[in-house]
Design goal:
Strand content: 15-25%
Number of helices: 15
Distance between the termini: 31 Å
Number of domains: 2
Structural class: alpha+beta
Order of helices and strands: HHEEHEEHEHEHEEHEHEHEHHHHEEHH
Radius of gyration: 33 Å
Oligomer: single chain
Strand order of the largest sheet: 3-4-9-6-8-7
Mean pLDDT: 81
Shape: elongated
Helix content: 40-55%
Number of strands: 13
Largest sheet: 6 strands, mixed, barrel
Length: 419
């Protein structure tokens, strides 16, 4: 142990109560920062996983077509000139020839799956009640590659749906509203057409209320019959090897294939903004503890400077330079900061683990996702950010008393004129 570090430790142990207060604030600041970031990031990650699992990373919905626009301009001589421009763009709803587009997307190594989906609003009725919903026509084997629908089934099975002619998969909330269960029959129709009868082969719970209360999955051919769409689909649902690259791949699809592609980040922009704002606000609130730790450290060192002026005079008389005195006081901050950061990280990790085992009331946040327990994210950057923030706050607060101690001169201390 260096002499400066040994002296710093002795100075610090002389103010045990003040040191404990500073240490406690650092522990709370680091620990609570880790906890809040772990929980908010955990729920954000679960929301993203739920959204991507239900609707894929990218949706391709409309064909982009160039459209000419004409306008007339009148010159001073009374001559009217008609001008045509080709820079206008219009979108053709749906995808009329999905097979060719799927083949082109299969050549993209970033795309791990493509599902053709035919969507439309319908009237649904059971033996006792009627309601409205949306039919989603899918090829189940394609769709399982781009979604986690198979893992969301709570009654029945994918195989039952695949192997049963005129079978349907229905959301839990919609099934409850219709007062039906597994193997019951429903009638589905559109625009007053003759209802078609389907048997419920599976019931799913995605955790997203908007989906669970309106979605019915049918085979692609059955949906085409119900929606009177013998050709084409509503959109293609894509899953990517790296969903974070959805904006890049969407832009490439627009440029190369001339179809409108929407990444999940754009579809869920409002929710992602809300989660980001929650993370920032939580961090700001918790930083109050770190700020208090800095103030407490400033107060502790300032008191030590006042009480140890004679010791500082002796050190300076023995040949210690101003830089040595500064290091002694900064070492005190480093000692408290190191102990506080280590204990704070342990406290944060232990508390995060404990929170992850706490049951979540009502099974999740209504309308967003479902979860049995509080969701946390284990990210080393949460610990790095927490410790870095504490280091900045505490060390900045420690510089002023350390520099003040270094400016003390032995002669001034002896004469009692030291400032």
């Amino acid at each position: 142990m260096s002499p400066n570090l040994r002296i710093a430790f002795r100075f610090l142990t002389a103010k045990k109560r003040a040191m404990v207060m500073s240490l406690t604030c650092i522990v709370l600041g680091v620990g609570l920062f880790i906890i809040t970031q772990a929980t908010t990031t955990g729920f954000q990650d679960l929301f993203i996983e739920t959204i991507i699992g239900a609707d894929g990373a990218v949706l391709i919905q409309d064909k982009i077509q160039s459209a000419r626009t004409s306008f007339e301009t009148e010159h001073g001589s009374g001559v009217v000139i008609e001008t045509t421009q080709d820079n206008a763009v219009k979108l053709q709803a749906g995808i009329e020839e999905p097979a060719g587009l799927v083949a082109a997307l299969d050549d993209n190594p970033a795309v791990v799956g493509v599902s053709q989906v035919l969507k439309g609003s319908v009237d649904i009725s059971s033996a006792v009640r009627s309601d409205t919903g949306r039919v989603y026509g899918i090829n189940i084997d394609q769709h399982l590659k781009v979604s986690n629908l198979g893992a969301k089934i709570v009654e029945g099975s994918v195989d039952d749906f695949r192997n049963r002619p005129a079978g349907a998969m229905i959301g839990r909330e919609l099934a409850d509203r219709l007062l039906i269960g597994l193997n019951d029959f429903i009638q589905v129709s559109q625009s007053g057409a003759t209802p078609q009868r389907y048997r419920v082969m599976a019931i799913f719970v995605t955790g997203i209320s908007a989906m669970d209360r309106e979605r019915i999955y049918l085979s692609l051919s059955d949906a085409a019959s119900v929606l009177h769409r013998p050709t084409g689909v509503s959109y293609l649902q894509l899953q990517l090897a790296d969903p974070a690259r959805a904006p890049v791949e969407s832009a490439r699809i627009v440029d190369e294939l001339r179809y409108n592609a929407q990444p999940w980040q754009e579809r869920e922009r409002s929710w992602l903004s809300a989660f980001s704002a929650l993370q920032v606000s939580s961090a700001i609130t918790v930083l109050v503890f770190t700020l208090i730790a800095g103030v407490a450290m400033f107060n502790t060192l300032a008191m030590i400077v006042i009480e140890k002026t004679k010791d500082i005079a002796i050190l300076r008389s023995m040949g210690y330079e101003r830089a040595d005195v500064t290091r002694i006081f900064l070492w005190q901050a480093v000692i408290v900061l190191t102990i506080g950061a280590v204990i704070g990280c342990v406290f944060g990790a232990a508390s995060t683990y404990g929170i992850s085992k706490m049951p979540l009331r009502n099974g999740g946040i209504s309308g967003i996702f479902s979860a049995k327990y509080y969701v946390v994210a284990w990210d080393v950057w949460h610990y790095v950010e927490a410790v870095s923030t504490a280091v900045v706050m505490v060390m900045l607060a420690s510089i002023i008393p350390a520099r003040r101690a270094a400016r003390l001169e032995p002669g001034d201390i002896v004469r009692g004129t030291a400032q």
